[in-house]
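so i finally got all the pieces together for this one. its two components total, 226 residues if u count the protein bits. some of the lines might not be protein, just check the labels. i wanna see the whole assembly predicted at once instead of chain by chain like last time, that was a mess tbh
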Amino acid sequence: AQRVTQPEKLLSVFKGAPVELKCNYSYSGSPELFWYVQYSRQRLQLLLRHISRESIKGFTADLNKGETSFHLKKPFAQEEDSAMYYCALSPPWGAQGAQKLVFGQGTRLTINP
Amino acid sequence: DSGVTQTPKHLITATGQRVTLRCSPRSGDLSVYWYQQSLDQGLQFLIHYYNGEERAKGNILERFSAQQFPDLHSELNLSSLELGDSALYFCASSFAPWGETQYFGPGTRLLVL
């Protein structure tokens, strides 16, 4: 079964504090993994994908295949990071279902001043 | 705007009715994906078209259908609407049929009364 679990519906931290948004996945193989962000009244946008290993807006995500996790981290939170964050997986190139994204339920991150 | 566009932004209709949601992909993208976002189910993949051809189906009800036209825009038709169909419907696009970042539109908010 393909599943993405984000255990925290809501997460609140103070500005300047470290942030970690948890994501666990279930897939028998090596999926593509993504983090999407949705700022208030805006569309879903890609924040990062594990294959590119980029750091966007100070966020990084480490893939842990043993724990099947892809947690999103930022060392110092900023107020503009307040948004809804979605973790998603896609089966790899050529695998069945590779066309679709399977999303977690999302975590609403609030950064307090 | 060369991004993904969706019309209408909002739609209010009654049970039993039929509506059509429209999506125009980013310039150059051949793939269109439809997703439904509801409070209880989260973001769920509905269907994928690539260059006019249906490529994958997800949790799409039989009352729902879609197509992609020669100019690559896509329409999602929802018929015999029920209260539970109230949701945000997103369209996304990408160039290739799989393995690529999907770019999302702003969504159409459907309310069935």
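Chain A touches chain B at residues 32, 34, 36, 42-46, 49, 86, 90, 92-94, 97-106 (CB under 8 Å).
The first strand of chain A starts at residue 3 and ends at 5.
anyway lmk what u think
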